[in-house]
Every structure is written in C-alpha cells, then in structure tokens.
Write a structure and sequence with these properties.
With about 250 residues, this protein is of the alpha/beta class. The chain is about 45% helix and about 15% strand. α1 crosses α8, α2 runs parallel beside α3 and α3 runs parallel beside α5. It starts with 7 loop residues before the first strand and ends in a 12-residue tail after the last strand. Bound molecules: nicotinamide-adenine-dinucleotide. Keywords: Oxidoreductase.
Amino acid sequence: MSEFAGLKALVTGGASGIGRATADLLAARGAQVAVLDRDTAGVDKPLLAYRADVTDDASVRTAVERAADDLGGLDILVNNAGIGAQGTVEDNDDTEWRHVFDVNVLGMVRTARAALPYLRRSGRAAIVNTCSIAATAGLPSRALYSASKGAVYSLTLAMAADHVREGIRVNCVNPGTVDTPWVGRLLDAAPDPAAERAALQARQPTGRLVSTAEVAGAIAYLAGPFSGATTGTALAVDGGMQGLRLRPA
Ligand code: NAD
C-alpha cells in the first residue's frame, strides 16, 4: 500500500511504543517520516530522528524546523509524546500536575504551533493527537492523567474548528490500555504483575490489551486520505471499553 506516497510526517514520541509503531507504519505505507523524541536511540533509517524535549519550546521549534527542511515540508503531525500518572487528587502535588500538563498538553500545543506554518502549505494536512480513553471514561486513580487527556480532547476539537478552512484536519485517537514499554514498566512495578495484567485485560470487553499496531492503524487512518471527510473526532481504540456497557459475567 502506498497511500502516503509523497507525504511527509512528523511523529512526536516516535522512538517507542505507539509512536514508533505509527512511524514504522506510515513509512511502510510510503510516507517520509521524522521522529521527534527526547531519546532517539534506536531510531533507524528510513526514519529521520530529531532530539527534542516537548517541554522546551526552543528545542521543539528547532527540531520541527530541521525536520520540515530535511523532508521538504510537512503534511502530517502525529502529536503523541506523553507520560502517565497515577493517583487521586490527593496523591499528586502541584509540581507533578504542572509537569504532566507541561508534557501532555503544552507539549502538543508547542509542537502544533511550530508545525502549523508548514502544514498550512500542504493543502491536505492532518494532525492526529494521541489522547486516551481516560479523557472520557472516569477511570479510578487517574485524576491527573485523565485531566491532561481531557484537555487534549478539547484541544483537538478547538484546533479542528480553527484550522478546517486552512485544509488541516485535526482528530484524536482514544486508546484503552495498550501493550507498550510504558505499561510494561507499570506492571513490573506492581506488587503482583500477573494479577495487575489480568485486571487491565478484564477492564476491556475484548479481554486483552490493545496492540501498538492497532493504535498505529487508527492513527494512520486519521492521518491519511481515506479520512478526508473526518475532522474534530475521537476514535476509540479500546477493546470496547467506551462503547459497550457489559455487565460483569
Ligand atoms: P512510551 O513510553 O512507550 O513512549 C512514549 C515516547 O514519548 C517515548 O519515546 C518517550 O521518550 C517520549 N517522550 C516522553 N516524554 C517526552 C518529552 N518530554 N519530550 C519528547 N519526547 C518525550 O509510551 P506509549 O504508551 O507509547 O505512549 C504514547 C502516547 O500514548 C502517550 O501520549 C500516552 O498518554 C498515550 N496512551 C498510552 C496508552 C497505553 O496504554 N500505553 C493508552 C492511552 C494513551
């Protein structure tokens, strides 16, 4: 498949997990792909790698400008870099709240701000934000993370409205629990990793974790030509968590 032939994409957080699967998939389907990450070790050709921290506006600007120059423009921005946080409102202090919002929300704002001048010139541009089912599901012990992803969801809708007349579509994906290195680290830190994994799997009606390939496929759909009439939406990739209301068996 080469539906992305001639298109240039930038994927933040593209060195690992969902971002890496997305960068690889877009490249396999014909896009030229640049990865922006704070740690680009292991990012190989054909992907281009640019080191930047999304909490540092200057480093984001420099990386986006260099990527767009090297690629010869930008058509797709996958705003994916993000970090997790656990706890109720009593568990995380102001410093933690500021840091998670700095990465998960402002990180996407900074990257979009730097990329928009290039995307505007594309004529068929798309931004896909990696949001989360936590934005809408009311998950326990995820107050800070959920609030940050709620902001990403609202940002997606607002940006879709602001840029639709410029030929830029903006959508987000809302994954459930995805089998990524991040979730692996969470499970390793749990008192009983096997029991924790089983609990996460049981939370999703499909009874298993989502794969990175499944999220990458959804992002590619929203970034590509087959979703040309779609903007301002959230696509759930969550094993039925949001849509189904199953009673426990
Ligand atoms: P991951 O840890 O495997 O990958 C995240 C990548 O982002 C890493 O390469 C990391 O270096 C990069 N990154 C983190 N902070 C950064 C910063 N300040 N500047 C630049 N790069 C930075 O995680 P993942 O599970 O693939 O998560 C990717 C996205 O998916 C996140 O936005 C996360 O909130 C979202 N998400 C994950 C899950 C899940 O279950 N794994 C579920 C829903 C949403």
